[in-house]
Amino acid sequence: MHVDIVPVGNVPATVKRAASSALRSVYDCEVTIGDSQSVPEGAYDSGRNQYSAENFIQLAERVGRGGKNIAITPLDLFYRRRNYVFGLAYLDGSGSVVSTYRLQTTSDGGFSNKSASEIVEDRVRKEIVHEIGHTYGLEHCDNNRCVMNFSPTVREVDIKEENLCGSCQRLIG
């Protein structure tokens, strides 16, 4: 499998490297990083002061060159009625998106003595692996250590591991 990372906006090299290495390590796939893209037309919702995650997925599907394509952006994303999302993907789809905007919250609930940048990179790695997991057909997992566990807050992201649990691993073969 080939995953193409599609940066949208100003995505730091450290974030792109973290995403790429996480995908390689968990899915043993080829990863490429495309050229930075502009924010998709019509994505901004002035009433919410946020961007629609679905527009970024469509952009990733359109410009990505992989079997799976994931947009990464520093912008604040929403999906339907949710206040915000860290990322979004459609089950068995080819496109997905992760936003680093809310992953930058400094509080990690006291779980580690890592630097703020290391904490953000850990979160990015987990969210990238999580969203690509959905494109492989994985749903949310009840195991709170599994990367496919639903995590609506950074605290839950910090608790889970970067890897798939045994049950989820078996589902993708």
Provide a descriptive summary of the structure in words.
The protein is 34% helix and 18% strand. 44% of the residues are buried. It is globular. It contains 5 helices and 8 strands. The model has no long low-confidence stretch (mean pLDDT 94). It is of the alpha/beta class. The chain has a 5-stranded mixed beta sheet with strand order 2-1-5-8-7, with helices on both faces. The protein has a 3-stranded mixed beta sheet with strand order 3-4-6.
Strand content: 15-25%
- Percent helix range: 25-40%
How many helical elements?
5
- Based on helices, strands and strand pairing, what is the structural class? alpha/beta
Summed over residues and divided by their number, the pLDDT gives a mean of 94
* Biggest sheet overview: 5 strands, mixed
Rounded to the nearest angstrom, the radius of gyration is: 15 Å
| Total beta-strand segments | 8
Poorly predicted runs are none
Question: Which sequence of strands runs across the widest sheet?
Answer: 2-1-5-8-7
Distance between the termini: 13 Å
Rough outline = globular
SSE series: EHEEEHEEEEHHH
Write a short abstract of this structure.
The chain has 173 residues and is an alpha/beta fold. It has 5 helices and 8 strands, in the order E-H-E-E-E-H-E-E-E-E-H-H-H. The longest helix is centred in the last third of the chain and has 20 residues, at 116-135.
List keywords for this structure.
173 residues, alpha/beta, 5-stranded mixed sheet, 8 strands
Furnish the topology, listing elements before pairings.
Elements: E1 2-7, H1 13-27, E2 30-33, E3 44-45, E4 50-52, H2 53-63, E5 68-73, E6 77-78, E7 87-89, E8 95-99, H3 116-135, H4 154-159, H5 166-172
Parallel strand pairs: 1-2, 1-5, 4-6, 5-8
Antiparallel strand pairs: 3-4, 7-8
Helix pairs in contact: 1-3
